[in-house]
Design a protein that fits this description.
The structure is a homodimer.
Chain A (H helix, E strand, L loop, with lengths): L7 H11 L16 H29 L2 E2 L5 E2 L4 H10 L18 H14 L1 H20 L2 H13 L2 E6 L15 E4 L5 E11 L8 E10 L10 E6 L1 E3 L5 E4 L2 E6 L10 E14 L5 H37 L23 H33 L3 H36 L2 H4 L5 H11 L6 H12 L2 H20 L7 H27 L1 H36 L5 H17 L2 H9 L4 H4 L7
Parallel strand pairs in A: 3-6, 4-6
Antiparallel strand pairs in A: 1-2, 4-5, 5-11, 6-7, 7-11, 8-9, 10-11
Helix pairs in contact in A: 1-8, 2-4, 4-5, 4-7, 4-8, 5-6, 5-7, 7-8, 7-9, 7-11, 8-9, 8-15, 8-16, 9-11, 9-12, 9-13, 9-15, 12-15, 13-14, 14-15, 14-16, 14-17, 15-16, 15-17
């Protein structure tokens, strides 16, 4: 049975030592965000994740969700009780506004607790996660009345939320969607249509489910310009704002999926279901995309979380399993064989995963801190920078981190040999659950296109230029220290190669946009590697400073060893990506479609 | 429902035009191996694979195998009937010796039919595949009487076979195995112990199951020097050689696995089961390894096969699914959107898979042809070369091709977006089934170690030197033609980089064997890429010659376009692998085991 132990030491290192999130307290909004409270919350979340959620992970995978003849859905044994604890302990409101009953703590706090829940039980963590996401849309686009009506119970988690975008004939291309909304005399709408792949679409854990639904108001323009966003509650509300009459929105089927079996992925049928417009007519995508950016960050975090839990179990196995002898002579002479962690190729897979995980954690946490700073920082220029960076980093965190997490979970499974393939050992589930993260909230190819086709060029390329300048300044500031020189060299080289790729794409994407499209995923990986190189350089500087100040905590020296692996062994991929990008569209597009 | 259509044109191109297997007919052994017969057999096999096996693939995945209270096992609905057709049509004997009832055709013939069966239904194809493998061990090491007793019915498939190696505490490290064999007065042995992960260990498709079992004879030396190989039939044979009394070897459980559900993966319990020694006492591994080399080739082929069927279905979906518009303007103006095959990143994934598949097919078929030539060629030097090359190529075909097939099946699944994650569409199964190929018959890390630690150095590095000379000569012979110049340049560059890596490993592995271990998987991938570069260069020369001779069959020009993708877009990985190798063991091994 796989285990999960939240990497509290590493989380706190990133949050407190590298990112200094304690300084957020100087802003009025976060005046109560003191580090003692943070530690208490992290401890509580770690305990809940390890003791309650992790043991339910295999249960969820094995049982899945069950749809009954009346359209109701039962979640796996234990999920309902665990969710009750989430609600009762106010876990979902950690970073939600106090006016709706939240604790108002920085987003980076709930990123850490969210990572833990997702690592322990990804399918479960989606129920609260999607609820926070749906609440976000109401927060962004809803009327004061809508906020007052829905947000308090979505903040506690008494009500959960969903996003209803995809239809059978349209996923990425939302302009094709057909679900129809007919205006009613009372200002509400009647929605009719079918949505598919709706995570947490129906279940037995909450009093009500608040569906956010994209639909086309009768007579609206075609394509993406005619899409509106609606609130469609499972139960309409009675006069006192509680769940009342059933709304005709129902689960028609549950999909049988490769993974995340514990989350009900529903076909949702809307048959004249009552809905309430969020914001303006035909402006639904704007709100949806703000919410989706946050969701994309959350998906990147799911990748990290699965990679981390897979890593932890692989380490345990590699230390326990005795098989073969070290190439450099026995390390466990008393035993019948050495633990397989002595073998360089097993180490390679573990180091690759560890270096990736720790770098990704820093990157995701930094990005979430930028979200927090964007809401409080006094300097407009700085807030603009936060927004610029988030624009760049969101597709990278979603696309690069989940792509790489797929590879690392597979490597961690590989360490188990034949046992990795047997469901009982749990490694298969980590791989299968991770798989969806490359697909939903915009497939990774779409992330790459968003990065290359939109984010790079926005405001004349301001975002990347600013980031490059920041990196240059960081390297210059830290170039005196020989002990971190490899990190600075690695970062500088990465930045230069990324710049070369950027220039190539800019020049050649102009003459033929397919040149940009054909190199987009390679470019996204280059930016992922460069971002991680920056994070590793920052972490190395922090760790080295602690060592120089006399700390003899192994944590710091191990951090540097892990980072050196990243620089020496993972950055070489940049050359391969760059070379591929520079071949352009021609070799990719030359074959006629009929010849495939 | 996924489909499979055997790529007959490509198979015949490789076999007849590139490898000229028709010339095998000049050897007496293959006098009847004419190309008309080959075509008829390929057609028949293609039809059987598409029409009978492919529709059973999802059935097998969904139903799995069922173990009953008495230890008997039922295979998925339809498997038994399909297997009956295999037996009745003599498909398993295609390349088996005529003296045991086979057709005696070259191995490369059955490689092609095996690829088809494996692509259509990997879990099913393992039953005949393992039987051929077990028969091979008896052919290599068995007494004339054992051969006469077992091989005829294993050649028809009336009896199936298994390999029993792994025990709960030992997989890779066979020296640890405990299954005990006690000599009996009549020359037989009684075997006691437990084996796990035994594919096709018990089922309902054949009259008898012939288990090949590694065990330790009482009093044998410890470790690998005390392992013997036994035949343990499920039913002992009566006087006329038919299945008689039940032998106490039974299936204790079926494993619940990530994939290949249609194949019964059994825990096998031997309780004083009667067994017969193959060859000499304590020399069991020798026979087992010869057989395993062939099995490893077969596993590489499974990787190719799954990658090919995944590719075929991804192409269909990419042509059907309308979503978004081409970056260079609409390609399907009359429709609501363009088929997604217009998008460069979708193309990239399809081209990568296609270029890999076609290169791998050539490599595997070439290697199998070397097996055939090794048995018939008049020149001892040539036969030695065949053996040398097979030593090098076997771990590459097993390790590199399955590693890469994992990535390509995931890419093909990705093309389906959300539908790729839904079991109904079948793409998940291809990924899940492929996963085992990286593990069994020696995990891919073991293949890499076999290559770097054993195969490279054997006979003073003769094998690779010979291959390098062959490549140099090939490049020199074909350097005049501008139309294939990119292929020659790519091949030459690949060979030079591989040589650089080889030199580095030789020099630095001497001082510290972990230097070789830490770079072994990267090296295996470099050799995979270089081997494919050689195959692509050969195919390009053949295709260009056809074009130059006036052919206007698009097949040839498309072949060159696909190969150019390989050279331009896939060979750049060599640099990344080389750079990683040259960092050596230090960054991989620096962290203390306790610090993971």
């Amino acid at each position: 049975m796989p285990v999960y132990n939240a990497p509290l030491r590493d989380m706190k290192f990133v949050m407190q030592e590298v990112l200094d999130i304690g300084s957020l307290q100087k802003y009025e909004k976060f005046a109560e965000a003191d580090m003692d409270t943070l530690e208490a919350i992290l401890e509580q979340s770690a305990k809940f994740s390890s003791e309650v959620l992790a043991p339910l992970n295999a249960v969820g995978d094995h049982e899945g969700c069950t749809r009954h003849a009346d359209g109701s859905v039962t979640t796996p044994k234990g999920f309902k009780e665990a969710y009750k604890q989430v609600v009762e302990n106010g876990m979902m409101g950690l970073s939600e506004p106090e006016e709706f009953g939240g604790m108002g703590m920085p987003s980076i706090w709930s990123t850490a607790t969210g990572e833990m829940q997702s690592a322990a039980n990804m399918a479960f963590a989606m129920y609260p996660g999607l609820t926070n996401g749906a609440a976000k849309a109401i927060k962004i686009g809803g009327s004061p009345e809508q906020k007052a009506t829905y947000l308090p119970k979505m903040t506690t988690g008494e009500w959960t939320g969903t996003m209803n975008l995809t239809e059978p004939h349209c996923g990425t291309d939302l302009g094709l969607l057909k679900t129809k909304a007919v205006p009613q005399a009372d200002g509400s709408y009647k929605l009719t249509g079918q949505k598919i792949f709706i995570s947490a679409g129906e279940h037995d854990m909450s009093d009500n489910i608040i569906h956010l639904v994209l639909a086309r108001i009768e007579g609206a323009p075609e394509g993406v310009k005619g899409i509106s966003l609606f609130i469609v509650p499972k139960f309409k509300l009675d006069e006192s704002g509680n769940s009342g009459e059933r709304n005709p929105v129902s689960c028609g089927a549950i999909e049988e999926k490769m993974g995340i079996h514990g989350n009900a992925t529903c076909v949702m049928n809307f048959d004249d279901a009552e809905g309430y417009l969020i914001g303006e007519e035909n402006k639904g995508l704007r709100v949806m995309f703000v919410m989706m950016n946050e969701a994309r960050m959350g998906v990147g975090m799911q990748g990290l979380a699965q990679s981390d839990v897979a890593y932890q179990n692989a380490v345990d196995y590699a230390n326990d399993r005795l098989q073969g002898r070290s190439l450099t002579g026995p390390k466990n002479e008393a035993g019948p064989a050495d633990p397989i962690i002595v073998h360089p190729d097993v180490r390679r897979m573990l180091m690759e995963t560890k270096a990736f995980n720790e770098g990704s954690r820093a990157l995701i946490y930094w990005a979430t801190l930028l979200e927090d700073l964007e809401t409080v920082h006094e300097d407009e220029k700085f807030r603009e920078k936060c927004d610029d960076y988030l624009g760049l980093l969101t597709p990278v965190i979603k696309g690069y981190i989940t792509d790489k997490a797929m590879a690392t979970t597979i490597d961690c499974q590989q360490i188990f040999g034949g046992h990795g393939f047997i469901e009982e050992w749990g490694m298969s589930q980590f791989v299968r659950d991770t798989r969806i993260a490359l697909i939903y909230e915009g497939a990774n190819g779409i992330q790459a296109l968003d990065l290359v086709g939109r984010k790079l060029a926005r405001n004349g390329g301001r975002a990347l230029m600013t980031l490059n300048n920041e990196i240059d300044a960081f390297v210059a500031d830290n170039s005196g220290n020989e002990k971190t020189a490899e990190f600075m060299d690695g970062l500088k080289t990465a930045k230069n190669k990324l710049t070369e790729a950027t220039m190539w794409l800019m020049q050649n994407g102009m003459t033929n946009p397919d040149n940009a499209g054909a190199g987009s995923v390679d470019y996204m990986h280059m930016m992922g590697l460069t971002s991680l190189a920056y994070m590793w350089a920052k972490m190395a500087v922090t760790a080295q400073a602690a060592i120089d100040a006399g700390s003899n905590d192994d944590f710091y020296s191990n951090k540097i060893i892990t980072g050196r692996y990243f620089v020496l062994r993972m950055l070489p991929m940049l050359d391969a990506h760059l070379a591929k990008i520079k071949t352009g569209a021609e070799p990719v597009m030359a074959l006629e479609a009929a010849a495939f």
